[in-house]
Amino acid sequence: MDAFKSPTFGVLLVSGLAAGIIGFTMSRRAARKERANMTASMAVLGRARDLGYTELAKIGREFVSERVVPEMKPVLIDLLKEFEGYLDNYFKRAEKAIEAM
């Protein structure tokens, strides 16, 4: 129990407490700033959401879903088929490389 009476123990205890208090206050300050930023971003998101419900935006969504998507469907399917072909070739080459080891 003589270790508790040494000056080194006191210095370590006080410095540990000080570090804990400093860390606690810094984390509280960071959390407060984060909450302030969160409310600002939530306000911007709300405004953007309100802009999305205009008549012009509704017409744009209808145009994309009725015209653009059906016309792009064959293009997307062709792209997927080409991608599948590239992947098949890659895996065939990888299998040959492994077999050649």
Q: Give unreliable regions as ranges.
A: none
Span between N and C termini?
Answer: 67 Å
Domains counted in the coordinates: how many? Answer: 2
**H/E element string?**
HH
SSE-based structural type: mainly alpha
Q: Beta-strand percentage?
A: under 5%
What is the average per-residue confidence, as pLDDT, rounded to a whole number? 80
**How many separate helices?**
2
Q: Helical percent range? A: over 70%
In one word, what is the shape?
flat
Largest sheet: none
Using only C-alpha atoms, the radius of gyration works out to 31 Å
**How many β-strand runs?**
0
What does this structure look like?
- It is built from 2 helices and no strands.
- Helix content is 90%, strand content 0%.
- It has 101 residues and is mainly α.
- The chain starts with 6 loop residues before the first helix and ends with a helix.
Concise summary:
With about 100 residues, the protein is mainly alpha-helical. Helices cover about 90% and strands about 0% of the residues.
Task: Break the fold down into its secondary structure elements and pairings.
Elements: H1 7-51, H2 55-100
